Amino acid sequence: MNTGLLTGNVDMLVALSATVAVFAAIIVVAWPYFVRDELAERMVQVANESERIRLRERGRLNAQNKQILRSEPKRLYKLVVDYLNLAGTEDSETVKMLRMAGYRGEGPITAYLALRQLAPLGMAALAALYVFVILNLGYPLFVKLAIVMAAAGFGYYAPALYVRNKITKRQISIRRSWPDALDLLLICVGSGMGIEGALRKVSGEIGSQSIELAEELSLTTAELSYLQDRRKAYENLAERTGLDGVKGVVTSLIQAEKYGTALSQSLRVQAQENRDMRMNEAEKKAAALPPKLTVPMIVFFLPVLFAVILTPAIIQMMKI
């Protein structure tokens, strides 16, 4: 009797275990159908937020008619380019150089091509007026013609020199403010903002330090809204600035877009590196200051010092 009771209990335990196992298997199989897919919902929300930001940026750029990124060429320059058939003669390096200087669109290219032709004529005419009429130098004719030709050559290279000087000043302004912009960008990204919203926020805040950097970041935000390939927008930022620090950050942004890597740590490292580069540049300028001051001190300071020291002695000697 005890054996039969024990057998019945074992059978009941086996049946109960089988029931629990079947129920658990059903729960495991049916669980994905009852639980919400939060990852898919978040991905949809991110896509919708990105599209909303793009539409907002497009509307904002269309509403700001005063801020035109591309200027139309002036009529005089257009006539010169059309008359000399210079349209399409510019190379990629010229366009890249003008973009780095902050000149974009057809207008600056047309003005640059026209000035390359008008500046030599203008400088030659001005030099001839001064040499032959106003100053009336007593030099031989070939010397006067050489002066006129030198002025014409300077006029030919003057537009390129002006553009390169503009590039240098622009890069200095961007380089000084770039580490601070990275810190602001890191704060925005760490708070959960998207890269487009972070760039727009930083461009509005960094304008008090560097208008050039604010302009470049605003243009990058606009390109992220318009261009289909987001990588091209980042590459354009690196190409327009021509700075190694910006190129490193652009590489990090492209990798984050392509592989989904963490952007905060990369931005933190890039910000520290750019800050160290700015400090090293300041130290180099400080180290180069004493040699630069040597000649001014010899020319201006030492004669005055000698005069102050020797004048009383000379006066005493003259009294004797």
What's the count of strands?
Answer: 0
Average pLDDT confidence is 79
Identify low-pLDDT runs: 65-69
Structure class: mainly alpha
Figure out the total of helices. 12
Beta-strand percent range:
under 5%
Quick one: overall form?
Answer: elongated
Largest sheet: none
Topology order in helix (H) and strand (E) letters: HHHHHHHHHHHH
| Distance linking N and C termini | 150 Å
Please compute the radius of gyration using only Cα atoms.
36 Å
Percent of residues in helices comes to over 70%
Pfam family, one: T2SSF
Subcellular location: Cell membrane
Keywords: Cell membrane, Membrane, Transmembrane, Transmembrane helix
Transmembrane segments: 12-35, 118-139, 145-163, 293-315
Write the layout of secondary structure elements.
Blueprint: H1 2-34, H2 38-63, H3 75-83, H4 92-100, H5 106-134, H6 141-190, H7 195-205, H8 211-226, H9 230-241, H10 244-259, H11 264-287, H12 289-319
General description of the model:
There is one protein chain. With 320 residues, the protein is an all-alpha fold. It contains twelve helices and no strands. The chain has helices at residues 2-34, 38-63, 75-83, 92-100, 106-134, 141-190, 195-205, 211-226, 230-241, 244-259, 264-287, 289-319. Helix 5 (106-134) runs antiparallel to helix 6. Residues 182-310 form the Type II secretion system protein GspF domain. It comes from Microvirga alba. InterPro entries: T2SS_GspF_dom. Pfam families: T2SSF.
